[in-house]
Amino acid sequence: MTQQSLADAIGVSKQVMHKIINGNKAINVTEISAISTALGTTVDELLTPSGEAKQSDFHDCLQHVQNQHTREKLLLLVEVMQEILFLEEVVHAKHSPESKR
Questions:
Q1: Given 8, 17, 37, 66, which residue has the most CB atoms within 10 angstroms?
Q2: Cβ–Cβ under 8 Å, residues 49 and 55
Q3: pLDDT tens, the chain, 101 aa long
Q4: Where is the HTH cro/C1-type domain (predicted)?
């Protein structure tokens, strides 16, 4: 998929997509949802690192984000996602058959 086709799929210009990809534009919930749909995946799969390399890949990518404000927002987003995943685990554990014994 090209930047242009992804931009078209989520309803932004190629320039805006370029800024998103290069970390020069903070991405909002609507855009991340549209990107995941366009790529045929879920937001969770798109944002959740899988495997040991993904965490270091994220930090490597973060090094290339030039805008400090965007970098801080991305780090905050990761913290929020980690909290959500933790809360989901707590809820699932609470409602699992093993917890009702």
A1: 17
A2: yes
A3: 888 899 999 999 999 988 888 888 888 888 888 888 998 888 888 777 665 555 666 777 777 888 888 888 888 888 888 888 888 888 888 776 665 55
A4: 1-46
Q: Please give the DSSP secondary-structure letter assigned to residue 51.
A: S
What's the whole-model pTM score? 0.47
Residue 19: burial class (beta carbons within 10 Å; 0-12, 13-18, 19+) = middle
Which of 34, 33, 16 shows the shortest CA–CA distance to 25?
Answer: 16
Nearest 5°: the CA angle 36, 42, 30 is 50
Phi, psi (degrees; rounded to nearest 5) at 73: -65, -40
**What distance in Å separates the CA atoms of residue 45 and residue 67, rounded to the nearest whole number?**
25
Q: Name the residue ranges covered by the structural domains of the chain.
A: 3-100
Architecture of domain 3-100: Orthogonal Bundle (1.10)
Alpha helices in the chain (DSSP H): 3-10, 14-21, 29-38, 43-47, 52-63, 68-95
